[in-house]
Amino acid sequence: MENGIDKVSGSMLFSEEELIEVSGLKKGGDFVEVTCGCTSHRYGDAVGKLRVFSNGNLEITCECTPGCNEDKLTPAAFEKHSGRETARKWKNNVWLIVKGEKVPLSKTAFLKYYNQASKNGNGIHKAHSGRVCHRDEFVRCSRCKKERRFRLRTKEECRIHHDALADVNWKCSDILYDRFVFPLLIMFLYDKLHLSCSSLLSHAH
Hints:
ULT1/2_Znf, Developmental_reg_ULTRAPETALA, six-stranded antiparallel beta sheet, SAND domain-containing protein, ULT1/2_SAND, alpha+beta, DNA binding, 6 helices, 2 domains, SAND domain, two-stranded antiparallel sheet
């Protein structure tokens, strides 16, 4: 369980009833993707692809123009990018197409993991740019059963963390030592070499 939310595959995130006639539906390894959009009275509809993850992350790839390369936007950033005049109400302004009609995100089931994550305070935050930023996250080693910390400051670090989450047989040794923040390097060496903490810390300094 990650931050109080079970990690499940994309095919099990939502019931069939919740996915009935939702446009652009695609089920990935740990996400569900659907067509979304936001309407500006001045610029019209900006369309994108919304990915919903079980840990509460919401990521939108914008497809407003053929040359647009904006991806991994938060819904708030997508709302702003679309030119929506009344911003900061993305739950109502960002819509999905359900049974051929535009339906506000807030009136669908696609916010349930986001709402649960917010309730649990799981470390999903919005930077000043509106993009997703994270605190450190943890993955449990399948061998020693201890939780290992991952830094989530760059796209590469987020990808490594997601890959580890997706691997049910993930072990501490599957990742290079410098991928961990420093305290976890100390703990890893302690476990591996059976040294005392004081001995390791004295060598580190």
